[in-house]
Amino acid sequence: MSEQNEQGTTAAGGDALVEQDHAARAAEAAEATPPVTSATPAATGAVPVAVEKYRPAVVADADGIAQAVQLLMQGGVVAFPTETVYGLGADAANAEAVARIFKIKKRPQTHPLIVHIPDASHLERWAVDIPDTARRLVGRYWPGPLTLVLRRAEGVSDLLTGGQDTIALRVAAHPVPEALLKAMSGGDDGQRRIGIAAPSANRFGRISPTTAAHVIADLGNDADLVLDGGACEVGIESTIVDFSRGEPVILRPGRISAQDIAALIGVEPGVPDAADVTAPRVSGSLAAHYAPRAKLRMMKRTAMIDALSAHKGQRIAALALEVNMPRLAPGLVVVVPAVASRYAHTLYANLRALDAAGADIILVETPPGSPAWAGVHDRLSRAAAATPDKPPKVEKAEKVEKVEQVEQVDKVDEVENP
Ligand code: TXA
Ligand code: MG
Asked: What angle do CA 30, 364, 314 make, to 5 degrees?
């Protein structure tokens, strides 16, 4: 098994974490995946817009969890951490609350949601025709960064499934959703569909948030509550495997790789057939998705160095695997080690930080092509396919204010001309 999976399944766990304060939790997350470099902007929580003007996040301790549970039960919308990215959650049984998720995200209603469930014993309440291979996968990787798409059980709401006959289910390896779902399971009769519908807590098409500050920077006060559980350990969204048509198909790569799945179930998962109009729809599979505001271009190192020296008048940033880069303005170079899990852990935070530093273009050094990197490649190539919108002037001003914050921690990444 790859080093990726070992980390993926040990993301977090135990009730103890819920009791801890924010600083301790952040430290624990940092320990789960050691800091990428001392200069990683991710560590600063730097975000593209000033979040101070919005309602602050609430620490995900026992009181915070209790507040969140109350809100969820009353039909509220709550953002919360998972081991992958932050989710925007509502009681899956409450249609009005679920409808608000779509509104807040500005997400088309035809794009289905992931439902977070308490544990694998709840599968049958939501799904039918569950293949043995799916059960084996769940036995190994739940709780963990894995989402299954299965044929939905009768009566599962169209709102959750986008009108499709399948439902996406996940058990997150994080004490916060675990505690929320436990509290919502009170009085369980063994049949009730208990779940929190929770897509990533970003606006449609944007980079998923991996800290509470990212959520607030994206959504402002739109969620009723943002629970702060520190930085997400995995950093990219869960692997989605579709079992609704028998043979497994990876709809979205993530930390759990095709190789890991094949090793466990003895079947190499397929890839989506772009020509098949009846295939399940995944918004994250749109060519242009997960976009930073700056234009992102992926290229080999030599091309990157040429591009950097040829640029004129634009603020060019670089996300690189090695240090020897031509001199760039402070805050505009991030160096990430070539370890897939560590790269993914800070990917979105790094893109946000480079956006915050006012980059017009982000040049990304093409990462290695081995299977462990599939999730990172997927997100980078979709981000590269996106057309950035021009941020309004006022946002630009906010960005410039924030550059200093990035500069301070990023200084050691400033490198001389080779
Ligand atoms: O790591 C994650 O999976 C995060 C955390 C918060 O759980 N959630 C997440 O949700 O990434 P979201 O909604 O941003 O992405 C879920 C993807 C979407 O692209 C959606 O279209 C797809 O899953 N999806 C949901 N239900 C589906 C279904 N029934 N068939 C096919 N795709 C589905
Ligand atoms: Mg998403």
From this structure: 115
